[in-house]
Design brief:
Blueprint (H helix, E strand, L loop, with lengths): L25 H14 L6 E3 L9 E6 L2 E13 L4 E2 L2 E4 L2 E7 L2 E2 L1 E7 L5 E7 H14 L10 H14 L2
Antiparallel strand pairs: 1-2, 2-3, 3-8, 4-7, 5-6, 8-9
Protein name: Peptide deformylase
Catalytic activity: N-terminal N-formyl-L-methionyl-[peptide] + H2O = N-terminal L-methionyl-[peptide] + formate
GO molecular function: peptide deformylase activity
Length: 163
């Protein structure tokens, strides 16, 4: 296992749609170990594989002491009638937090290393994490979801940081 460095905004891997995992081999097992170790730090809620430079469809989470992972996740359900508009940040966009509208509830399905079905679901923070990490796997950052005013401010802050 290895604690991996986080790729930052501007790295092309963050804007590339991740590939489906078709071979559950030793490198994929190592990736899962790295995702679990790297997400297991204070202030980390989720981590997509491309955030550590691997363009495969996998993410890990660390929500209220519950740490896990899912491979080949797909969003299968979100609440249509209730949403949340809380502050959101990203390890790949350090230091920026902006109100980001997300569904209140989200459910994703994928598999584990043995090919067994995994269901990841939750409300509030877990729902936000699921949606955020799935966006990463599709090559999007939370900044893409900001309203015009907040996106302009975020981009100004990024330029000031040299990112």
């Amino acid at each position: 296992m290895a604690y991996r460095d986080i790729r930052l905004i501007g790295d092309p891997v963050l804007r590339t749609q991740c590939d489906w995992i078709t071979d559950f081999n030793a490198p994929v097992r190592s990736l899962v170990e790295d995702l679990l170790e790297t997400v297991d730090a204070d202030g980390r809620a989720g981590l997509a594989a491309n955030q550590i430079g691997v363009s495969l469809r996998a993410f890990s989470w660390n929500i209220e002491g519950d740490i896990g992972y899912v491979l080949n996740p797909q969003l299968v359900e979100i609440s249509q009638d209730k949403d949340q508009d809380g502050e959101e940040g990203c390890l790949s966009v350090p230091g920026l937090w902006y109100p980001t509208r997300r569904a209140w509830y989200a459910k994703a399905e994928g598999v584990d290393l043995d090919g067994q079905k995994v269901v990841v679901e939750g409300e509030e923070l877990m729902a936000r994490c699921i949606q955020h990490e799935l966006d990463h796997l599709d090559g999007h950052l939370y900044l893409d979801r900001l309203d015009r005013k907040n996106r302009a401010q975020a981009m100004k802050e990024l330029r000031a940081q040299g990112l």
